[in-house]
Design brief:
single chain; two-stranded antiparallel sheet
């Protein structure tokens, strides 16, 4: 059969966040972990926080994007954000500085949309956080410092997207 059909979104996995003080990984290992979900790549010590995530169906993924504002996102911002990715360091700063006010607003609007997509994806895919009762997304929102909370949302969204888009044999 030439087409791959995802027959179920019932898949659940457990993951850790690389910003957790109980998890050690260099940048390359972190990227590989986010791509594969293979926690054996990480050095995880006792006390790490484990998150249970579920795969999202196509309808759930679409609803998360709609909740994030998919129908109102800035297409100019998307286009400019793609160009931004071609620049690094000072070159990126100079590229951004050269944008007119309308373009800066479009990029900022698109960045807010992407952040909202991550939040909505995690809201839909976060099942539980080991050792914590209550609404898992509300518990997640209480992570401090802020930078760790934001990184947790991005990493969890990456894991949810990965398991939601893989075929049944590739889900881990």
């Amino acid at each position: 059969m030439a087409l791959n059909f995802a027959l179920s979104s019932d898949t659940q996995i457990q993951v850790v966040i690389t910003a957790d003080e109980s998890v050690n990984a260099d940048d390359d290992t972190r990227r590989t972990y986010l791509d594969t979900g293979d926690a054996s790549l990480l050095h995880i010590t006792e006390g790490a926080t484990w998150f249970t995530l579920k795969a999202l169906s196509p309808a759930e993924r679409l609803q998360a994007e709609i909740n994030a504002g998919a129908h109102t996102r800035s297409e100019l911002g998307r286009h400019l954000a793609e160009q931004r990715g071609e620049h690094t360091g000072e070159d990126r700063a100079r590229w951004h500085h050269a944008l007119n006010d309308d373009e800066r607003k479009a990029v900022a609007s698109y960045d807010q949309y992407i952040e909202a997509c991550y939040v909505e994806t995690v809201k839909a895919g976060l099942v539980s956080i080991d050792g914590h009762n209550g609404d898992p997304f509300e518990v997640l929102q209480s992570i401090r410092p802020e930078g760790v909370r934001q990184l947790a949302i991005v990493e969890l969204a990456c894991h949810v997207q990965r398991i939601s888009l893989l075929g049944p044999d590739e889900k881990k």
